[in-house]
Amino acid sequence: MTIKASATAKNGDFVKVHYTGTLDDGSVFDTSRKRGTPLEFMVGGGMVIKGFDKAVTGLAVGESRKERVAPEDAYGHPDPGMVLKFPAAQAPEGLKAGMQVQLSNGMIAKCTKLDDKEVELDLNHELAGKSLTFDVELMALTPAERLGKATFGMGCFWGPELVFQRVPGVVTTEVGYSNGNTEEPTYEEVCSGKTGHCEVVQVTYDNGAVTYEELLDVFWEKHDPTTLNRQGADQGTQYRSGIYAHSEEQKAAAEKSKAARQGKVSAPIVTEVVSLSKYYTAEPYHQQYLARGGRFGKSQNPAKGCNDPIRCYG
Taking a C-beta distance cutoff of 8 angstroms, is the pair 198, 278 a contact? Predict the structure, then answer.
């Protein structure tokens, strides 16, 4: 599908954008141009700040724009409730005032105070309260009409997400909880097995570059669909094998694919094929977990076509 020169970015489109961000004093706080790699995201998908979406919306490929973004459409104003205080005796070894630290939930905090009695951590974004100016250029656009979604359960969602990040034609991935019986579950609640949710990876793909049937092939190849509520050492209903269809067409394709796969293996396939329901995005610290370093801080390559072995926990 060829993108006409007149096509402009709108909500739901997948775009590649070069940008430079400056503060009111003219200092540059971030730029993709120096890295040489454009930022990729879905317009209106919550992947960037609201003001950045606005800066890109309406641009055609090759067009540029400068947009000044107020704090309300950027990182908000500093929230006193995002400042944590606790006894100095509980501070991790080596912590110093001014240092940035990553908390267990994945959030980044800055140590703003450290003395003999107390530690203060500020969880506000470092750009909170600031107006930002973005110089953006739209480099590429895949229209929303060409994008599809697919959702799969393949055990602990960290590994499967990296699997699909590497598939050419997949434009974004996220992990979440699907087909349970409670609202807004937390990771801890899902892991208890009491919510009925499955840990899943949700894939957005360019159906002009990869088909749903090809994604199903990856699904079958990259996990064991014959073990009930278990993948490797991970056991529980949250680790079940599942295909969660976004349409009746997907469900039919999944059933056909399952039957074909059953003809290739002797053990019964236990994969459930049902319509997607009660899907909730998982907490931010789970997203692209292995690509960002995983449990041990060692990033795994998410590049398209990469065949490096995947370390399931990092």
Answer: no
Locate 238 and state its tokens.
Answer: 């949250």
| Rounded distance between C-alpha atoms, residue 162 and residue 203, angstroms | 11
What's the pLDDT tens digit per position in 191-201?
999 999 999 99
∠ CA 213-215-219 to the nearest 5 degrees?
Answer: 115
Distance between CA atoms of residues 156 and 150, nearest Å: 17
Longest dimension (CA), the chain: 68
> Tokens in use for 131?
């107006």
pLDDT of the residue at 5:
52
How would you classify the pairing of strands 39-42 and 272-275? Answer: unpaired
**Strand pairing class (170-178; 280-281):** antiparallel
How many CB atoms within 10 Å of residue 35? Answer: 10
Tokens of 231: 């993948």
Rg for the chain, CA atoms, rounded:
22
Torsion angle (degrees, nearest 10) of CA 143, 144, 146, 147: 130
For residue 1, pLDDT over 60 is answered with no
Active site residues: 156
**pTM of the full predicted structure?**
0.83
CA distance 181 to 264: 34
The pLDDT tens digits for 180-236 are 999 999 999 999 999 999 999 999 999 999 999 999 999 999 999 999 999 999 999
Q: Which residues pair with 30 in a beta bridge?
A: 21
User: Residue 192: which residues within 8 A CB-CB, separation 6 or more?
Assistant: none
